[in-house]
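User: I'm preparing a small set of examples for a lab meeting where we compare how different chains pack in three dimensions. I only have the primary sequence for this one, and I'd like the structure in token form so I can line it up with the others. Please keep the answer compact; I'll paste it straight into my notes.
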Amino acid sequence: MKQHKLFSIILLISCLSVTAYAKSGYEIKIKVSGLKDSTVVLAHYFAKESLTFIKDDSTKLNKKGEAIFANTKPLTGGMYIVILPQKKYFDLFIGNNQQFSVEADTADLVRSVKFKGSEENTLFYNYRNLITGKTKEMKHLNEQFASANAAQKDSITKARNSLNTEVKNYIRQSIDQNKGTFFAIWLQALQEVEIPPLPRDAKGNITDPNFQYKYWHQHFFDNFDLSDVKLLHTPFYERKVIDYLDKAAIQHPDSIQKETDRLMSMIGSNDEVRRYMLGTIYNHLAEKANQYVGMDSPFVYFAEKYYLPQATWADQKFRDNLQKDIAKIKPNLIGKEAPNLPLAEIPVEHFITSKTDTIARKSLQIGRMMKLQDVRAKFTVLVFWEVDCGHCQKEMPLLYDSIYPIIKNKDVKIVAIHMLTGADAKAKWVDFVNDHKLYDWINATPLEYAYKDTYNIISTPTVYLLDENKRILSKRIGIKQLPEVIENEIKRQQAQQSSH
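Assistant: Understood. Below is the structure token output for the 500-residue chain.
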């Protein structure tokens, strides 16, 4: 009994204080038929299409199913959700007016929600109900179209076009008539940019086949204000950002870097938006860097230019480790000259002699000193491998027997760098080279040991492709991909030459 009275007093105090501060903060009265003596939660959506919410407030319904969410501090605008027991919920909008009431019935939450004092929420639910109805009409027309004859299909097509026009006009009028409200901002943000037709000359010939893509890319955010924190509090902010990076942007490292600059220039000064964008772009680029060759370049660019200087809230240990990772990645980014790598080239004669000479087989004092820059070829393939690596044991013979014959006549030289050290490892390496007759390329060992960090070798075999100036063209290539990668590079170089 004492606990019950204490709770009642606290609730009374909070209710009394609402009257004093509601006008300067928020006061949302709710009544839920079919529910009583239950805790309900007010939360906002956050960026993602999945049900990702951040809790803002909670209260308890009385025996009549009534409660109040209230605080002296206003809520940040956006799409909110009232979460009820048994995984039931309903949406609402928070805009400039944050004093209103809402009623709902658990028997039919979809159609029962009603608002007083909130025009924006009334507009939102009217819009949802209309779209739901029009979607059903369109589905019915599509089902009719599937079994219709030619004349009927023509009539149904006109009906579908008329329905689309009706919805578009409704949306356009809703936006125009409610400018300045979050409802209008939200509805505008949902609309894809309308792309003009391809430009044509007087004879009807297309003058710029890439016009529509360029227009779409340039105007991608015309309807969507990335700096508006209210849009961050919706389920579709992140999808807009990721679609831009993955679909509107040209998937080339240099292009992705420029696109991150564009995104960061559009986010304004809101701290929540900036923090979110820093984390989202960083994570997305990190994922792409792990999946696609060359995409570590925009990751390093973004981390150095934006994330490390601005994400001051990030854990210091994480930031320190990131700085170390970048230091490892930077020397071997695509387009850079491959780091200097002193090598000992082992002549073919030594491998053959070592078949019968057990002393030579384990000897470490053998080989001609060389550098990568000594290799004269249009393309140089570096393969870092270890004889004890099971994957290498399969891939190295495949490279020699099946891949090398295809690329050899394209002025390609392979430098196979064996990484294990010590006399026993040397003996195993010699045996493997002899067993598979891997003689017709450069077999070498490194003469310094920082190369693993310099070339960021985290697994074997690791393959790099260099041009004639020893600039890195590609890296971490699958053995079977080498012919295609080299052929594409040849075509790119030829296209570049013909354009000059």
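A couple of notes for your slides: Confidence is low (pLDDT under 50) at residues 1-22. Residues 210 and 402 are 40 Å apart (CA to CA).

User: Perfect, thanks.
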